[in-house]
Amino acid sequence: MTVLFRVARNPDPGSRLAYLLWVPVPDGPLLLKARERWPRTAKVYCHRADAWPDVDGLELVEEVAVRTCAWRGRSVDLVLDRHRENRSQFVFTRLKSGREGIFWQTPKTVGGVRPGLRVPTRRASGAEVLTVLRDTRERYGYRFANQQAVVDAQPLPCGDYGIAIDGRIVAAVERKSLDDFSTSAVDASLSFAMAELAALERAAVVVEGRYGDLFTREHVQPGFLADLVAQLQVRYPTVPNVFCGSRKLAEEWTFRFLGAARAELS
């Protein structure tokens, strides 16, 4: 049965919140009123709705299949089954007045080894040749030139590298330089990426740097980044952040991870 996210026009002419949202969280739909139908330029304020109107002529603006919709602490991650405007998050806070505040946001509206180490060329989990899918938006990506792999560039729904079984993406890896990992952790875009990866059977974030370097980043208080990374790992336990120390080892780890996922899920 397909799970759907719905947006309808609010039939109440006196409401300043023009849209109704049907958010299919596992414990029952979360019903909200919202100012906009999608957070395109800024966070969208929302308010709980008492019920989904059972009225004739309710105008349904859109109805989209859902890849994942789940509570993550005091927020809800929503990933839709479409290529654009597919990742969003509902954040529940307490306003100064004491009332509940709900804000709908997207990545766009949220304000980042030893030299000479020889990497072995052993096949990944016994596979003769591993077909690795590389996202077409990935710049300066891995070529896996020293591994038994062929690279097929195509648009991926999430992650930078993945594998498919029977035409379905089952595992993916998001590649991050240390700078990109740090920036995306601070501006919350990493949270959205991990939410989307969590919808797959196997996924990970690979970092071309060392964990210890998080404590020496400029313009960031010591320990702040480490706390963010720990919080993300607790929120998304199925998507590990793996610090490989260098680009070469990150490429090797990605190859091994995808090979193991292929062997496990085939």
Entry keywords:
266 residues, alpha+beta, six-stranded mixed sheet, 4 helices
**Strand runs, count:** 14
Helix content: 10-25%
Order of neighbouring strands in the sheet with most strands: 1-2-3-4-8-7-6-5
> How many helical elements?
4
End-to-end separation in angstroms reads: 24 Å
* Main sheet makeup: 8 strands, antiparallel, barrel
- Rg calc: 21 Å
Low-confidence stretches: 112-117
Shape: globular
Order of helices and strands: EEEEEEEEEEEEHHEHEH
Mean pLDDT: 89
Instruction: State which percent range the strand residues make up.
Output: 25-35%
Which structural class do the helices and strands define? alpha+beta
Fold topology:
Elements: E1 4-9, E2 19-23, E3 30-34, E4 44-48, E5 60-72, E6 75-80, E7 87-94, E8 100-105, E9 130-134, E10 149-153, E11 161-165, E12 168-177, H1 178-186, H2 189-197, E13 202-208, H3 224-235, E14 241-243, H4 247-265
Parallel strand pairs: 9-10, 12-13, 13-14
Antiparallel strand pairs: 1-2, 1-5, 2-3, 3-4, 4-8, 5-6, 6-7, 7-8, 9-11, 11-12
